[in-house]
Design brief:
Elements: E1 5-8, H1 12-23, E2 30-33, H2 49-52, H3 64-70, E3 73-75, E4 80-84, E5 89-92, E6 97-99, E7 102-105, E8 109-111, E9 124-126, H4 130-142, E10 145-149, H5 153-164, E11 168-172, H6 185-197, E12 201-203, E13 208-214, E14 217-223, E15 226-229, E16 233-235, E17 239-241, H7 244-248, E18 257-258, E19 270-272, E20 277-280, E21 287-288, H8 293-307, E22 319-324, E23 327-333, E24 340-345, E25 352-358, E26 361-368, H9 371-382, H10 389-392
Parallel strand pairs: 1-2, 1-7, 2-3, 7-19, 9-16, 10-11, 10-16, 11-12, 18-20
Antiparallel strand pairs: 4-5, 5-6, 8-17, 13-14, 14-15, 20-21, 22-23, 23-26, 24-25, 25-26
């Protein structure tokens, strides 16, 4: 039987797996299967620097020579089509068949699309891959106005980048506030006012429907019954876990590929990591699926430990960030339901942090333009420390002194 470790995916989790396995001396056993032609690359810049600068290049995690030196076999622009679990092999689009001892699914997530808008409209875009980013960069350069659907992180980042390029930007969000599932109401209001202050026409609780298509382009949409012409539409309406291969192979899936604390799927020979993995937050507790670079990287380390035969359950502290023009949001921990919120002032009126408590326990910290407070807050959460709210909210108190 083959001793190969096959990794399917080309994102942050896949890159972390390659690095960890190479460091353990197992690179020669690794096959990395990427649907894209690119080497694994940094995704966050796609909605920011990459969009705004026509000279900006992709930032690869590792050079091609590194993979060769590590002994890792690359299968680029050759997506996996099927998993045969009984035979322990994967079929690729090229016709190649890879046998495996262990398989890791790092398939990530796919951008959601509106069913009313079929693929192929010349002025409708989304952003998930390098190819999407290159196309959107060209479209932005040629457009004077942009309409963004969705007030989540990706929609707001794209809107801020387009506004920085001098475009007239309209953002439409169907929910009554921004980032409804991601941040507190106070942070959402600050984000709203910041973007409106930058000149973005940001509308909440609106229904976008009645799409008018002419000659392969979207000509207009109906927003709350009013016709709105469209020059360029960007869909930023979220993402769904890419579970197609896993489901076809009969793996247990529920809002992602269901895994245990060591990231093993319902088939112990197959692991899942990153955006596509639904993992237990605590033993016997609720499950989570997180879409973040932190989660992808930390789960890659847990998966490497599992592949090496070590039981090291995934227990990393979740943290996130989003850069939207001059606005830097950073979050650590998971927001408790119905907790108390306490505000720590920052160095400027546009800089502050919110400390969320569940009873006496510090559970989550949200920071706006306060990177050092975020860093120290992460350390407090990781150490399990819960200083009194009046202490952490006193700007004269250095958070580092509370560790």
């Amino acid at each position: 039987m083959s001793d190969s470790i096959v990794i399917i995916g080309g994102g942050h989790a896949a890159a972390g797996l390659c690095a960890g396995l190479a460091e353990a001396g197992l690179g020669a056993r690794v096959h990395l299967v990427c649907a894209e032609a690119e080497l694994p690359y940094q995704r966050p810049p796609l909605s920011k620097a990459f969009l705004k600068n026509p000279e900006e290049a992709l930032q690869s995690h590792r050079a091609e020579a590194w993979y060769a030196d590590a002994g890792i076999t690359l299968h680029r622009a050759d997506p996996a089509l099927a998993i045969e679990r009984a035979a322990q092999r994967v079929s690729l689009q090229s016709g190649a068949v890879l046998e495996y001892e262990r398989l890791v699914l790092a398939t990530g997530a796919v951008a959601r699309r509106l069913p009313q808008l079929g693929a192929g409209l010349a002025n409708v875009a989304l952003l998930r891959s390098a190819a999407d980013a290159r196309r959107l960069r060209e479209q932005l350069a040629a457009a004077a106005s942009v309409t963004v659907l969705g007030g989540g992180f990706i929609g707001l980042e794209i809107a801020a980048s387009a506004r920085a390029l001098g475009k007239a930007v309209t953002l439409l969000e169907s929910a009554p506030r921004l980032l409804e599932r991601s941040v507190s109401a106070e942070i959402a209001e600050h984000v709203l006012q910041t973007h409106r202050g930058a000149g973005i026409d940001l509308r909440l609780a609106v229904a976008a429907e009645g799409f008018e298509v002419e000659g392969g382009r979207l000509a207009a949409i109906s927003v709350d019954g009013r016709r709105e012409p469209v020059e360029l539409l960007v869909m930023g309406i979220g993402a769904a876990p890419d579970t197609a291969l896993a489901e076809a192979a009969g793996l247990e899936c529920d809002n992602g590929i269901v895994v245990d604390a060591c990231l093993r799927s319902s088939d112990p020979a197959i692991l899942a990591v990153g955006d596509c993995a639904n993992f237990p937050q605590t033993p016997g507790g609720r499950r989570l699926r997180l879409e973040s670079v932190q989660n992808a990287g930390d789960q890659a380390r847990t998966a490497v430990a599992t592949l090496l035969g070590r039981e090291e359950p995934y227990r990393a502290l979740p943290w996130f960030w989003s850069e939207q023009g001059g606005l830097r949001l950073q979050m650590a921990g998971l927001m408790p339901a119905g907790g108390e919120i306490h505000r720590r002032p920052g160095a400027t009126p546009a800089s502050f942090s919110l400390f969320h408590y569940s009873g006496a326990r510090l559970a989550c910290v949200e920071s706006v333009n306060a990177p050092m407070d975020h860093l120290m807050s992460r350390k407090l959460l990781e150490a399990g420390k819960s200083p009194a709210p009046d202490v952490v909210c006193d700007p004269k108190t250095a958070l580092k002194a509370l560790l």
